[in-house]
């Protein structure tokens, strides 16, 4: 990190994890704390919205399944957010101090060792979305069938396509982190 550009938006990286950039190393600790503080009310609002959707499902049996998938899928959202914030915080803290040489290897080692965690979390998080999409395609909700294409998964793939066309810049890095 020494000798590299010292700016928050620097997208240059030196390891295999493309989002552990020199710019990320400059993020102050209070921003990571703020990110976690905002994640908690965010997950509560997310849960309220998901549980409210069950009222639009026609079958009581399918409502119960959707409710269970939603309850089971909420925990990975906050856990995954915490996982990434802790890696980013440790990377930033180590980079700023006398442990700068260890920052990148440690961040990569933690991510590699727990590489199963994001995959399992994302699978659990996607279950309510997939089930909801399935309901809408089968017209088991009060919404018209074409509303299935407003599903977050469709929006996710659209954003992924947009991100893929962008040059390497801070905005693209931000989109990548939101989509990880």
UniProtKB/TrEMBL annotation:
Keyword Magnesium: no
InterPro entries named in the record: DUF6796
Source domain of life: Bacteria
Record Pfam families: DUF6796 (PF20599)
Parts of the chain that traverse the membrane: 34-53, 65-94, 114-135, 147-166
Record's keyword terms, sorted: Membrane, Transmembrane, Transmembrane helix
The name this protein goes by in its record: Acyltransferase 3 domain-containing protein
Taxonomic lineage of the native organism: Bacteria, Bacillati, Bacillota, Clostridia, Lachnospirales
């Amino acid at each position: 990190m020494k000798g590299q550009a010292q700016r928050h938006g620097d997208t240059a990286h030196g390891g295999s994890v493309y989002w552990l950039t020199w710019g990320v190393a400059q993020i102050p600790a209070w921003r990571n704390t703020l990110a976690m503080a905002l994640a908690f009310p965010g997950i509560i609002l997310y849960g309220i919205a998901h549980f409210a959707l069950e009222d639009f499902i026609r079958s009581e049996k399918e409502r119960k399944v959707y409710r269970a998938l939603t309850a089971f899928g909420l925990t990975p959202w906050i856990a995954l957010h915490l996982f990434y914030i802790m890696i980013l915080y440790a990377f930033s803290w180590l980079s700023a101090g006398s442990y700068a040489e260890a920052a990148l290897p440690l961040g990569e080692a933690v991510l590699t060792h727990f590489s199963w965690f994001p995959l399992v979390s994302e699978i659990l998080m996607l279950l309510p979305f997939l089930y909801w999409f399935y309901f809408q395609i089968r017209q088991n909700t009060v919404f018209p069938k074409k509303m299935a294409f407003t599903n977050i998964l469709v929006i996710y793939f659209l954003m992924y396509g947009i991100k893929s066309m962008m040059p390497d810049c801070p905005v693209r890095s931000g989109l990548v982190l939101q989509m990880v």
